[in-house]
């Protein structure tokens, strides 16, 4: 009878440990799920913000290329930076 009593005590302890382990895993998974939802909303906000920035950059580019207020200054700066290297390469290729 002593062996049966020991086996019953072991199964009770093992069952309680299994239930507690399942509850802890469920608790951890619940919090991981909440974190993933938060991360998803953050990523969606970043994507929306990047789309807005891309649209703004496209509008700025159109404004500059269409002859907007800063186009002359921008063309002067870009011409000074890239024009000298192009003119040197053209001179070398002509010689």
What does this molecule look like?
- This protein is mainly alpha-helical.
- The chain is built from two helices and no strands.
- 93% of the residues lie in helices and 0% in strands.
- The mean pLDDT is 83.
Tell me the series of helices and strands, N- to C-terminal.
Answer: HH
Assembly state of the chains shown? single chain
Report the average pLDDT across residues.
Answer: 83
Shape: rod-shaped
User: Helix proportion of residues, in percent?
Assistant: over 70%
Number of E strands? 0
N-to-C span: 110 Å
- Summed up, the helix count is 2
The Cα radius of gyration reads: 35 Å
Largest sheet: none
Which percent band covers the strand fraction? under 5%
Low-confidence stretches: none
Helical/strand content category: mainly alpha
Quick rundown:
With 95 residues, this protein is mainly alpha-helical. 93% of the residues lie in helices and 0% in strands. The protein is rod-shaped and about 100 Å long.
Give short descriptive properties of this protein.
mainly alpha; single chain; 95 residues; 2 helices
Helices and strands in order:
Blueprint: H1 2-65, H2 71-94
